[in-house]
Amino acid sequence: MSEFEPKIVAFVCNWCTYAGADLTGTSRIKYASNVKIVRFPCTGRIDFMLLLKAFAEGADGIIVSGCHPNDCHYTSGNFHARRRWVIFRGLLNFMGIDVNRIQFSWVSAAEGAKWADVVNGTVTAVRELGPYTQYRKAADYLAQQDQSIIDGQEAMIIK
């Protein structure tokens, strides 16, 4: 049996981490290729419901990365993201989602090697945790409930 390859989604800042990831590629630094990058203007603009949606769509792990504190292109966006992360961790614990599946980091545009380390470290950690299936079960259950509500409404309209 082949080794489990996790699906990782990275939500990154356009000005720092995305540029750092670009530097990683142009410097030909090798890192895991199973990370899909979603670029945002700033990590402060990331709605953490998107992270839950990523899990529902099949992600096994997530990276959120932006500018270092006091280096934000928009002055304080990374501070907003950090405050949200503290609250979101509590929500994840309440929902039973292992917080080790999400990596929150700061990577500047000049830190291509650090981006490679963050990606490789996250992939290794998520690989050890195994595939994430609990959230998919909940998403399937909710989809079935939505369908039964729709079916019930159609039955009421037909009568």
UniProtKB/TrEMBL annotation:
It comes from the Bacteria. The keyword Metal-binding applies. Keywords: Iron, Iron-sulfur, Metal-binding, Oxidoreductase. One of its GO terms (molecular function) is metal ion binding. InterPro entries: MvhD/FlpD. The keyword Hydrolase does not apply. Pfam families: FlpD. Residues 8-130 form the F420-non-reducing hydrogenase iron-sulfur subunit D domain. This is Coenzyme F420-reducing hydrogenase, delta subunit. It comes from Paludibacter jiangxiensis.
